[in-house]
Amino acid sequence: MSDQAGTAETPRRGSRWVKWALVASLALNLLVAGALATAAWRHRNWGPAGSSSIYGFVRSLPETRRAAILRAADAERQKLRPYWAELRQARSDVAATLSAKPFDATKFTTAHDKLLAAEVRARTLAHDFFRSIVDKLDDNERVALGQWLAKRERRSRRRDAWRRHRSSDESSQ
User: Fold this and answer.
1) For residue 115, what is the enclosing H or E element?
2) 3-state SS string over 20-88?
3) Which 3 state secondary structure label does DSSP give 11?
4) CA separation (Å) from 114 to 86, 91, 107?
5) Please, what's the largest Cα pairwise distance for the chain?
6) How far from 167 is each of 31, 35, 66, 90, 164, CA to CA, in Å?
7) Taking the C-alpha atoms of 33, 38, 40 and 43 in order, what is their torsion angle to the nearest 10 degrees?
8) What does the radius of gyration of the chain's CA atoms come to, in whole angstroms?
9) pLDDT, tens digit, 9 for 90 and up, residues 63-120
């Protein structure tokens, strides 16, 4: 009779490096998940894309009010398009004068003054656009807009404070 107990192979266990690789992989996955969770937590109040403009507030209104206000706002917004194009062109002209060789200070000053005038026109029309939307709101909606703007300002201040803190950390390195 043969002795089977002495010749039986024991099941082979995985090598040590595979176990360490699995542990390292788990640690890396937890690190990435923590980074994503931290980013989501820090930015939890920023809201969806497009929520930083007056359109973000209008989208929060009931459907019937939203549709009426957006129709009127879109008509007003179309009036801004030529001024945005003028502003883009003025910025492009300033960039061109800065990179021209040889640099002509007079051309730069002229282009920069045109840029300022285009910015003032565009901002003035943007303020008129904002007023046109506010004029269409009822009393409750205006109060809600005021609260929305205050909340947006608080978010902006927190974000700016975080950026200042972050830039001071980077400059001290």
Assistant:
1) helix 105-135
2) HHHHHHHHHHHHHHHHHHHHHHHCCCCCCCCCCCHHHHHCCCCHHHHHHHHHHHHHHHHHHHHHHHHHH
3) coil
4) 10, 9, 11
5) 109
6) 24, 20, 40, 31, 5
7) -160
8) 30
9) 888 888 888 888 878 888 898 899 999 999 999 999 999 999 999 999 999 999 999 9
Q: How far apart are the first and last CA of the chain?
A: 77
Amino acid identity for residue 158 in this structure: R
Burial class (CB in 10 A: 0-12, 13-18, 19+), 90: buried
Tokens coding 18: 């595979």
CA distance 83 to 119: 9
As given in the structure block, the two tokens for residue 31 are: 């690190």
Q: Are 88 and 95 in contact (CB under 8 A)?
A: no
